[in-house]
């Protein structure tokens, strides 16, 4: 049980991740009222995202492709160094940690990647893939002698056997390769696993097996997950909390059942209404979004969703909405919260 004084497993505060891109001189020339100038384009991939995950909790980030959810995952895992903000793992801010400082953090936080083939070294056997992070964290000779036995137990726990330890990744199916990735992540007994679209490349029947395995491991080891996905049915199955992202911003954050039953942000409503359903009739009218997602090189003023929102009005262009409490643990970044008569339309 998490106590009030216990720090969250993961806490993210005002996380920003911007990428400067190159290009030719002509592409970088800008002409405005101040004259001709040379500008270096910046991709605003993540723009002030904040959330926390308690021990044993699963939080999902959802949104369209390009919304920044995978960039959030990779920045938290320190594949990228954040442009700004704090990333606290068990209360320790790792945003500016160097390689040596991150080594002990790796025993607390591991990552499962989207592609279960590209994320595994094709020249290593399974036993070496799973053992590599464990050996990095093990210094004593006695502990190192126990590594082979621990690898065998890990493989058994994720549904593989001792015979598989001597094979190469190309000799396995996609689902089996993802099980290897899970075993590798578990090898250092982390408290937090960042899972970036871990089942999107798998068949539906295999997806269910991997999701159930991840939930069982959560219950057995008390793991916390940051789960990245664009599939709302998968999120509904596995998540405790759901954060919705659009163009690098968190626009809604709520407990899973609250968000699926009573979405407040127009973008969330549109995502849920567009999700495939086996029901003959939908409970709510489908919301059709028009236009394209704006470029992260040039964010719109005010609310970034206003260019596609069917409820947008003047305030949306002037003022960028901030996440505010909507009750029941529900946070929404939308001006409709302050305008009940518009929200009811």
Give your account of this protein's structure.
By secondary structure, the chain is of the alpha/beta class. It contains 13 helices and 14 strands. Strands 8-9-10-5-11-12-14-13 form an 8-stranded mixed β-sheet, with helices on both faces. It has a 4-stranded antiparallel β-sheet with strand order 4-1-6-7, with helices on one face. The chain has a two-stranded antiparallel ribbon with strand order 2-3. Strand 11 and strand 12 form a beta hairpin. Helix 4 (126-137) packs parallel to helix 7 (174-186). The two termini are 42 Å apart.
Number of helices: 13
CA radius of gyration: 22 Å
Mean pLDDT: 89
Tell me, briefly, the overall form: globular
User: What percent of residues adopt helix (DSSP H or I)?
Assistant: 25-40%
Which residues sit in consecutive blocks of at least 5 with pLDDT less than 50?
none
First CA to last CA: what distance? 42 Å
Percent of residues in beta strands:
15-25%
Order of helices and strands: EHEEEEHEEHEHHHHEHEHEEHHHEEH
Class computed from helices, strands and strand pairing: alpha/beta
Record the strand order, biggest sheet.
8-9-10-5-11-12-14-13
Which structural traits does this protein have?
single chain, 345 residues, alpha/beta, 8-stranded mixed beta sheet, 14 strands, 32% helix, globular
